[in-house]
Amino acid sequence: MLEYNYRNEMDQIQLKEEQMEQMIQAMTKEKPSSKVVRLGGRLLVAAALCALLSVSALAASPALRTALGQLLGNFAPYSQTIQGVSDEDQGLRFQVVSALSDQYRSTVYIAVEDLTGERFTDEAIIMACNIPRQWGKVSISSQGECVSYDPETHAALFRYSQTGYQRSQEVEKLELEVTSVQPGYYQDLSGPLPEEIPGEYLETMTLDTGEEVLVPEQNPAPLEGFRDLASLSSMGFAPDGTFQVLFRLSHEVRTEREGDGVISVTPMLDGVMPEGEIGDSYFTWQGERYIGMSFVIPLSERDRLTLSNAYGTLRTQEPIRGEWKLPFTMENLPALELALSDVEGAILPDTLVLSPLGAMLLGDIEAQFRGNNPFALCMQDGSRLEDFEKQAATMLPNELYVLGNWAFPEPVDVEQVVGVETGRWYISVSGEDAGTIYPIDNHP
Amino acid sequence: MERAEAERLVRLHGQAVYRLAYARTGSREDAEDVTQETFLRLVRTGPEFQDEEHCRAWLFRVALNCAGDLFRSAWRRRKRPLEEAEQVAAPEEDEQAGEVLRAVLSLPESYRAPVHLFYYEGMSIAEVASVLKMREGTVRTRLVRARTMLREQLKGGEERA
Question: How far apart are CA A110 and CA B71, in angstroms?
């Protein structure tokens, strides 16, 4: 009787003809999303690459088109081609060409052409840029990373990411601001030093500043990994009770600005850093420029001494300064935002955010940072996805905190996620108990 | 989407989706919004289906997600146990709804969808579990509790064996 009556009564609940007609019309106007994977992977990648080909800034550079496709990988169907304004000044032309974003994280790809053909020579380029957002207060990276360079066209592709911020609108009108481009900027140079350390004192000389430094070129050696921009000039002990390392800079290296020409070495005595002040020296000798470091380590400690690699950042060109502004519209993938249940006796995050790009836990500061906890997705087919890249979180007073932030290496179909395991807890993601937090060892 | 295809889908599945949305939300207006959004998502995502049953199951799942979005959009907190908290989501009373329908709409949120799919759509426990992404045991438990609650409300109505 229950079933019979329920059926009869529910039969009276009907869409009217005009409501159905309205839906039909809305469906005819709705456009399929280019961002959601529903077809076979190969078809979608081809479709995404076709979209990339139409991007004017990349039209003349097959190498950059290919690079963008490789960088996006399986995320390509979720990305969007940005048809925006280009800005050109001082021989550089910028255009935002692609974006991969949801309401909590974004990566924007920017093509930059060196119209002079003389300044961009490789991928060693950094870009100072920003995309102001409405939430404004988050401290985020302000540097675009060069991810590909095409020597044929002197064009470079940059990637600029923002994450760990609070919720954005689904559609945002944004503006990329670029203030400088620094070509010829070689970061993270690294190379080993010779293992053999002289067992006697090397010659020293006194600079005009009064510093006592090793005479250059006593035991020179090339520095692998430094692209011929620097070499080892002298390395050894001085009679004043110091151990010194002296590097010679190539003529290409620029040293006009404070902080230019940094090369460092870390000595260890039986695996422990020695005490005492570290001396730095910069000088020119016989037309060559040198950078030196000195450590309070006497010759008697030679057998205990080991050295790290030499590490350095060197610049070979002047920065190009300007004010480039590129307005564009970004459509963010909507994220599943799940309100989480309370658990007696525990202060936990109150929202789980999931999109094909990543996951976040949001809540009050009292729930504490959880970004270092293990984080795994439990999928409908029984599989488990884990080992995600941990990304930046946000801790701002009186605001909703990002307590954990994980990026997925491959796009995730959120509809296939049934639960999340993090720390001591299991969060149900789908079904009628979606948002319920259980102990990890006792959940449905 | 071509009009012919849109019309075919709405006429074939529209009422079913609307009724499920109504059972879930208890509001004709909300149900209409949920139904429209469900079909628009169908256009946006363009999934491929093995058959019409597969399509309908997909639409049901999306409709329930959309209905859930309506409730979650206020970042509402819930306290356990669920039965106590879900009284927060009691729908407005539909004056035109019959006695049994009103009783079903007065059930906690998490019981209405299983009841509707089982009693109205005639789905099996396994099929209901698949649509709702629940274990079959959970579906059985919800149906048993729902029948008990409905019996209390309706005072001696017949139940399905």
Answer: 39
